[in-house]
Amino acid sequence: MLVLLPPSETKATGGDGPALDLDTLAFGELNPLRRKLADALVDLAADVPASLAALGLSERQRDEVERNARLWTAPTMPALRRYTGVLYDALDVDGFSAAQLARAQRRLAVASALFGVVRAADPIPAYRLSGGSTLPGFGTLRSLWRPVLEPVLADVGELVVDLRSGTYAALARVPGAVTVRVVTEDSAGRRKTVSHHNKAYKGRLAAALATTRTEPSTVDKLVSVAARSGMTLEREGERELALVTGP
Asked: How far is CA 135 from CA 40, 45, 211, in A?
């Protein structure tokens, strides 16, 4: 099973790994485009106002541009620890046992505007590039990634649980992937999509799927794993699930 997580705008600083080496990342077929985008970000960082405009940043976020300038020389850390925020707080990697972490490293991957997709243990630097950004002289990231990333994800050869946000799901479709919608149900049984706590619930689900001793290989097994962790997953279609929360 492969669980595809969305990235986060916020990244942990620092790291104790060596500088970025694309050959150490999973899905090496993506390296030519990864290199092209990384070089473009470094070049763009030489023009701070242009970087701020292209990346949708304010003057107070100039440090994000400085991060991009150091892409090839900054220290790295595992992707699962590089990304931060609500989903990753709920995932709570620090709370995993050694055995759970090993399973999570096999099962979790993170979507990325810069790297396409990375495995949990892949060593990456801090950077700033969002899925909706357009770099000067390039097309949209969707137009760049789709023809390259879609064949790679289609060839994974195992059950894919797609927890990506819409922006990152648009970078590459995954035929046959299981998607999850977080919904709330009121006392009358009416449901609506959750927005505010959506990331936290998906982080909890990802943690359950990543650490379970059994290897979920069907939709029914996904539902069972969630139930054992106190979460309710219900089918909305052959490959569509609803994570049902209270009011």
From this structure: 8, 11, 37
Alpha helices in the chain (DSSP H): 31-45, 48-55, 62-69, 79-82, 86-91, 98-107, 141-154, 166-169, 198-211, 219-228
| Cα(176)–Cα(155) distance, integer angstroms | 11
For 127, the enclosing helix (H) or strand (E) is none
Count CB neighbours of 244 within 10 A. 18
Which is it for the CA torsion 151, 156, 158, 161, positive or negative? negative
Is-above-0.70 flag for pTM? yes
Mutual angle of helices 62-69 and 31-45, in 10-degree steps: 130
CA dist 112 and 91 (Å) reads: 18
Place of tokens 């986060």: 8
What would the pLDDT profile of 117-171 be if each residue is shown by its tens digit?
999 999 999 999 999 999 999 989 999 999 999 999 999 999 999 999 999 999 9
The structure tokens listed for 110 are 């993170």
What six digits make up the tokens of 209?
């799927």
Summarize pLDDT for 39-72 with one digit per residue, the tens.
999 999 999 999 999 999 999 999 999 999 999 9
155 burial level (CB within 10 Å; 0-12, 13-18, 19+): exposed
